[in-house]
């Protein structure tokens, strides 16, 4: 049951490349035949990856890093790009018509083919190279033009072309005070699209990631007292996202049966997405938060360490509620009580359940344990939590408020109208995203 990955735009390619390096490291460390067939082509050993961007700079940087690291991750035929960019405009990315080039030829491809056409052609090629495909993952950001517009279009086309496959997006929301005045429109239109066409949206908010990473750095460097004292890079954010994905997606190993259980998209959707209209989930991991530790302490300590970095209150000081959550333990449980200990810590300290889940017979948290650790970090243990929570309502409400205010004054609308959008498209997106917020409110 294979998974295919599409890296779109600058952020999508940067995070995707970091993720593939981690995945390849896990594969190399185990040397188990068939262990990573889910993610790699059995014939060529190349990853099931398609790399796309409206500008070549980031893609070429990833490929240069691949060569310098002496890795063999990507099929050059699956790399397509343009050289004109998308101008931070969702509409331009969605309807992109610039000349498209392929890495192997470095010449313009057929004039009639768009970047979307070439992307779907390479996804088709990867699909046909697999025996069975269970899911397609799309890595992209929501603030710029390529990741937001082209990302939305590709997710839509995948749903039309492959209606039976699970679609997951790894979506990055920009900083609240971002680089472009168009980011609120771009986020609005992207959220509207991926919510409709994807089965699950792994949503990472840059502001939350920054708070988590800097808080951890302060703990490791007690001498630093202010945020400005702590240095971080985009690479730190990319590594956190990648390690979270690895913690969730890697196969689970059992010492008792000596078998690996591969990632199961069906189970994940059923465990954390109770209904189609509330399909946004977040990921948290202890893998990077405890990387200075040299020996195992206790699962209670690890769970408590993770929850310190999880927001528990929104901007109105209301408790953030958890609808469903799945925890993945890697490194093996030490005692029969560890499952209850981990669940209790997670539920009491960060992942507070909505009222209608309390006291029901089913387990509130699904917990899966693997007897193998994440070998890339040389840690004997790690804990990853995938949760469907109400924390995203802050982002949704901010995007709705900003977009509606701008739309009322017709600010920048003409920039989108030049590329095929109308005011009704914005009104529809606002209505749909408001329905998502209302659905979350009903659940709590």
Automatic annotation (TrEMBL):
SMART domains: Tubulin. PROSITE patterns: TUBULIN (PS00227). One of its GO terms (cellular component) is microtubule. Residues 36-252 form the Tubulin/FtsZ GTPase domain. GO terms for biological process: microtubule-based process. Pfam families: Tubulin. InterPro entries: Tub_FtsZ_C (IPR008280), Tubulin (IPR000217), Tubulin/FtsZ_GTPase_sf (IPR036525), Tubulin_CS (IPR017975), Tubulin_FtsZ_GTPase (IPR003008). It comes from the Eukaryota. Keywords: GTP-binding, Microtubule, Nucleotide-binding. One of its GO terms (molecular function) is GTP binding. SUPFAM superfamilies: Tubulin C-terminal domain-like (SSF55307), Tubulin nucleotide-binding domain-like (SSF52490). Belongs to the tubulin family. This is Tubulin/FtsZ GTPase domain-containing protein. It comes from Naegleria fowleri (Brain eating amoeba).
């Amino acid at each position: 049951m294979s998974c295919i990955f599409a890296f779109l735009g600058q952020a999508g390619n940067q995070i995707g490349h970091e993720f593939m390096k981690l995945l390849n490291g896990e594969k190399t460390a185990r040397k188990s035949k068939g262990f990573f067939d889910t993610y790699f082509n059995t014939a060529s050993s190349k990853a099931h990856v398609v790399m796309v961007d409206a500008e070549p700079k980031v893609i070429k940087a990833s490929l240069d890093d691949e060569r310098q690291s002496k890795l063999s991750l990507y099929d050059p035929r699956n790399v397509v790009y343009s050289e004109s960019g998308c101008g931070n405009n969702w509409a331009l990315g969605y309807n992109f018509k610039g000349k498209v080039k392929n890495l192997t030829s470095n010449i313009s491809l057929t004039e009639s083919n768009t970047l979307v056409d070439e992307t779907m052609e390479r996804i088709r090629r990867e699909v046909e190279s697999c025996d069975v495909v269970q899911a397609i993952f799309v890595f992209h950001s929501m603030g710029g033009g390529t990741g937001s517009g082209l990302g939305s279009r590709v997710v839509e086309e995948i749903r039309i072309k492959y209606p039976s496959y699970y679609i997951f997006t790894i979506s990055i929301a920009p900083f609240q005070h971002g680089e472009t005045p168009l980011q609120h429109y771009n986020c609005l239109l992207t959220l509207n699209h991926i919510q409709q066409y994807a089965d699950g949206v792994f949503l990472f908010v840059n502001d939350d990631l920054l708070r988590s990473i800097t808080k951890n750095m302060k703990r490791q460097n007690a001498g630093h007292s202010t945020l400005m004292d702590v240095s971080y890079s985009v690479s730190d954010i990319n590594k956190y996202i990648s390690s979270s994905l690895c913690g969730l997606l890697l196969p689970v190993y059992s010492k008792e049966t000596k078998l690996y259980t591969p990632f199961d998209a069906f189970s994940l959707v059923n465990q954390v997405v109770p209904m189609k209209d509330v399909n946004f989930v977040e990921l948290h991991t202890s893998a990077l938060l405890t990387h200075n530790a040299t020996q195992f302490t206790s699962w209670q300590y690890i769970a408590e360490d993770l929850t310190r970095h999880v927001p528990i209150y929104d901007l109105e000081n209301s408790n953030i509620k958890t609808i469903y959550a799945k925890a993945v333990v890697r490194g093996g449980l030490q005692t029969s009580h560890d499952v209850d200990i981990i669940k209790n810590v997670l539920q009491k300290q960060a992942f507070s359940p909505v009222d209608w889940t309390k006291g029901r017979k089913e387990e509130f948290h699904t917990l899966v344990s693997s007897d193998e650790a994440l070998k890339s970090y040389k840690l004997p243990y790690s804990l990853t939590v995938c949760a469907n929570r109400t924390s995203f309502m802050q982002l949704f409400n901010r995007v709705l408020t900003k977009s509606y205010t701008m739309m009322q004054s017709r600010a920048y609308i003409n920039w989108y109208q030049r590329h095929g959008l109308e005011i009704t498209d914005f009104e529809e997106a606002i209505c749909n995203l408001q329905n998502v917020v209302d659905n979350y409110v009903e659940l709590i």
